[in-house]
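[Discussion] Sanity-checking designs against the backbone

I'm trying to build intuition for which residues belong where. Below is a structure token string of 182 positions. I'd appreciate it if someone posts a full sequence so I can compare it with mine line by line.
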């Protein structure tokens, strides 16, 4: 018959231990990447719409996510349809105005802002001064008064105006500061 230990390691001061702690070894799941000995704390799907998961460390999860394509194997129409269905189903979780930093895009700009930058033929990291200069340049070259009767130029001019408005509103929201109360 095995003898149970009667001695504790708290030396008579039970508050030295954390609540809920015990002496048993904690189970740690290792990273699923072959040869990695780090703990696997980041779950990643094995395939789209599958409940099975890999468990990676942070470094290997980042490597795995870099190559992940959620729409792999779908045509452009099927991918757009799936995205539309998922947006429709997640309508109750639409983005709040105060969480605009978490929207789609590169993290600093929304998807609409990125499209507007494409219309104005600018890079993603363009400043608002660059936006203003590109808007003036393109608006002058596509203005209906400069090109009378050219319907393509008129539609381009409208797209340029809409893109500038999107970027202007976003810049105002980014730089808006509340008034100081007297």
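Best answer:
Here's mine. Compare freely.
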């Amino acid at each position: 018959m095995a003898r149970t230990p009667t001695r504790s390691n708290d030396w008579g001061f039970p508050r030295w231990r954390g609540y809920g702690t015990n002496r048993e070894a904690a189970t740690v799941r290792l990273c699923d990447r072959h040869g990695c000995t780090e703990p696997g704390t980041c779950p990643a799907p094995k395939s789209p719409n599958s409940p099975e998961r890999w468990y990676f460390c942070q470094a290997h999860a980042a490597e795995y996510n870099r190559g992940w394509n959620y729409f792999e194997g779908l045509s452009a129409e099927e991918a757009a349809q799936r995205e539309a269905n998922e947006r429709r189903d997640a309508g109750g979780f639409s983005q709040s105005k105060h969480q605009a930093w978490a929207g789609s895009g590169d993290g600093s700009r929304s998807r609409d802002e990125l499209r507007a930058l494409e219309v104005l033929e600018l890079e993603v990291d363009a400043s608002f001064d660059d936006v203003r200069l590109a808007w003036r340049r393109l608006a002058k070259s596509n203005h209906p008064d400069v090109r009378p009767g050219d319907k393509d130029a008129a539609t381009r001019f409208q797209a340029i105006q809409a893109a500038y408005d999107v970027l202007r509103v976003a810049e105002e929201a980014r730089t808006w500061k509340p008034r100081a109360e007297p």
